[in-house]
């Protein structure tokens, strides 16, 4: 058990460290500014009266709910349905995390070419479909492939929707992202709680269906209600 955890945690920690060293700026820029309470609450008001911004926040919460179907419950699903050992399951989880990171890294290429809104819409659909399907497939290797595909598309969607959310109200980016972080965590908590109840009362198949459908809802909401200020907007 300890070796399995070490084999999972150590590579992820090392990858995070290397990405931080490469991606984070080496120089810090200090900006001295005082934000009044009036300015702060004005920013909150601007966020919640903006239909596009509030839709982005809702989509972040829904995507968090859907992500728990893979990230939190896939291990118990594979172990219960296919009697996989803990060691092999740690390898699968490491693969899922790797595919999610890859999705986040390649998301920028799609955003530059198609725009944020199109990337979120087109990535969330397959992400939701693969999350739904992986719990229904009785063949181990095929179920794993579908789960990994769900991870990579979730990574693409997550990065794109964070960027899309950030640009909704340029004058209040800090406030927008603070609210977004809180709502995203609420989505993760809801996904964990509701997912556990679904498994207990109904089963894993309905877990994938119930939570994975949230990503399909994200695609619909993004297409209908979200504005994209980027130059390349295909939707």
Topology:
Blueprint: H1 2-23, H2 37-49, H3 51-71, H4 74-82, H5 86-114, H6 116-134, H7 140-166, H8 173-201, H9 204-225
Helix pairs in contact: 1-5, 3-7, 3-8, 3-9, 4-5, 5-6, 5-7, 6-7, 6-9, 8-9
Structure overview:
With 235 residues, the protein is an all-alpha fold. It has 9 helices and no strands. The protein has helices at residues 2-23, 37-49, 51-71, 74-82, 86-114, 116-134, 140-166, 173-201, 204-225. The longest helix is centred in the middle third of the chain and has 29 residues, at 86-114.
Provide a short characterization of the protein structure.
By secondary structure, the protein is mostly helical.
Count the E strands: 0
The rough form would be described as: globular
Uncertain segments are 1-6, 29-33
**How confident overall, as mean pLDDT?**
86
Structural class: mainly alpha
Kindly report how far apart the N and C termini lie. Answer: 47 Å
Number of helices: 9
Properties at a glance:
235 residues; 9 helices; globular
């Amino acid at each position: 058990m300890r070796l399995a955890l070490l084999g999972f945690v150590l590579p992820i920690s090392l990858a995070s460290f290397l990405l931080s060293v490469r991606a984070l700026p080496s120089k810090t820029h200090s900006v001295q500014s005082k934000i009044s309470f009036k300015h702060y609450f004005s920013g909150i008001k601007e966020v919640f009266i903006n239909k596009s911004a509030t839709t982005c926040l809702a989509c972040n919460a829904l995507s968090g709910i859907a992500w728990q179907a893979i990230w939190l419950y896939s291990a118990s699903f594979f172990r219960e349905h296919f009697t996989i050992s803990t060691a092999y399951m740690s390898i699968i989880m490491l693969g899922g995390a790797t595919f999610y990171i890859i999705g986040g890294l390649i998301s920028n290429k799609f955003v530059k070419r198609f725009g944020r809104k199109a990337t979120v819409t087109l990535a969330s659909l397959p992400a939701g479909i693969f999350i739904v399907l992986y719990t229904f497939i009785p063949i181990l290797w095929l179920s794993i492939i579908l789960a990994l595909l769900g991870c990579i598309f979730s990574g693409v969607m997550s990065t794109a929707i964070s960027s899309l959310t950030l640009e909704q109200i340029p004058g209040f980016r800090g406030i927008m992202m603070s609210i977004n972080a809180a709502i995203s965590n609420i989505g993760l908590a809801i996904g964990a709680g509701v997912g556990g109840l679904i498994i207990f009362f109904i089963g894993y198949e309905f877990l994938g269906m119930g939570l994975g459908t949230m990503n399909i809802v994200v695609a619909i909401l993004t297409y209908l209600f979200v504005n994209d200020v980027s130059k390349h907007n295909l939707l």
